[in-house]
Amino acid sequence: MTTVPSDARETMTPVQEILASDIGPEIPAPLLEQSPPPSYGVEDLDVDRYLSPEFMRLEYEKLWSRVWQWACLAHEIPESGDHLVYEIGDKSVLIVRQPDGGIKAFYNSCQHRARLIADGPGEGATSFVCGFHAWTYNLDGTLKHVPCQWDFPQVTENRARFGLREIRCETYGGFVFINFDDEAGSLIEHLDVIPEHFKPYPLEHRFSVANVRKIVPINWKACLEAFLESYHVYLTHPQALEFTGDANTQYDIWKTTSRLMTLTATPSPHLSEGGTPDDVFHATAAAFGAPEDQIPPLPDGMPARAMIAEMAKQLVGPQIGMNLDDRSHAELIDSIEYFVFPNWLPWAGLTQGLQYRFRPNGDDPCSSIFDVQLMLPFDPSGPRPPSAPLKVLQYEDSFVEHAPELSLFAPIFDQDFANLVAINKGMKTHGKPGITLGDYQEARIRHFHKLVDEWLAR
Ligand code: FES
Ligand SMILES: [Fe+2]
To answer: Less CB within 10 Å around the terminal CB: N or C of the chain?
Structure first.
């Protein structure tokens, strides 16, 4: 069934109209862009896509084995021999910083009897010694030493065949991606609009103030989808309504990427009466952490967005050692979240540098791994500040209590994650065979599934 795009937005102020009324520095062109209205029909999505072990098996076979996927950050392995292990399903990948500064990835498996080469991350290795019989590999994967080599004439005859098997590995903006498919196109091609749209926010000049992982009892797609729309804001994050334009969020869809732009310091269209500009300003400032008694009144005639952007500049600029005077309000205060198929969600802008990653966990379709990093810009003329080490939370651990470094995002994640177990249970007891999606606000979810289908059909 094909439908025309819904007109459900027509009574709301579009994002572009609000951006056009912003006073202040020029807004980067990509933020003024709108994709053609997405419409993929209104068919339900079968719940088996989330619950079926067979669907998951197909995803491993057809998708994860062939798609570019964010494996780690280059700054996590800064020096020669630094390495870490990335896992997807039952595949384990060893990623190694090379002496020449490059990065290589290998199947993390010994060429003798297949023991894992590295059980976890490490620093400054000069070679890798397998823990079973000590076959030893150079950092570039070539075979260095075999104890009792006299017993392996096949190795003596063709040593090159016994190096670690290399996997494609390419880097964008300090993000290291791997792809098991030698025939795949380039990473840059796969990243679609990202290199162009992220020019104003170079990701390589960011460091992590939070690096948190949670194993979540729900399918990886359902977990990811909770972050693809702002439709849930009015009930799941009701504290944001006074200052968040949730229902007039702009959704854009390109080839392998999509975006939402939810504006801040503007009231929700769900509120029958938005507050005065001063109310909106006050609520926004308080939500951004300004102490109540230090929030000044909004100067006469000054838009709330302009005043919040000014405060963000003064607060964040010195923290990150950057002069933000020439940055637009949108870059300073709005929620601008991109999606790169299949599982990376980088936020644009300067102050909300969230990075999400979602992946399946082993062979249980109802278990997934969620990673979030909060990455702030730093002045690249100075040294790179140290990044926060990985912290792993149990599902029950609240972000507020156990990961306060996520700052004002921690309580929001707690609200999001409180839904997930209930969604997983609800899917299993669903009276109808499919879930239903909105035409516009949930179009990114449909686009995501359309891409999944395309990959599974290849
Ligand atoms: S399995 Fe690695 S040395 Fe034997
Ligand atoms: Fe949310």
So the answer is: N
Q: What is the pLDDT of residue 275?
A: 80
Ligand 2 centroid from CA 68, angstroms: 26
> In the prediction, which pLDDT does 7 show?
52
Residue finishing a domain among 161, 189, 217: 189
Quickly count: other Cβ atoms within 10 Å of residue 308's Cβ.
25
Supply the residue whose CA is at minimum distance from atom 4 of ligand 1: 133
- Per-residue pLDDT at 279: 93
Q: How far is the CA of 156 from the centre of ligand 2 (A)?
A: 58
Ligand at shortest distance from the CA of 235: 2
For every residue of 160-172, DSSP letters joined together read GGGSPPEEEEEEE
Number of domains in the chain: 2
Residue 145 Cβ contacting ligand 1 at under 6 Å: no
Task: Mark which of 137, 169, 189 sits at the end of a domain.
Answer: 189
For 379-405, the pLDDT digits (tens) are 899 999 999 999 999 999 999 999 999
Collect the ranges in the chain with pLDDT lower than 70.
Answer: 1-11
The kind and range of the H/E element at 56 are helix 53-58
Ligand 2 centre to CA of 357 (Å) is 15
Range of the domain at 420: 12-44+192-456
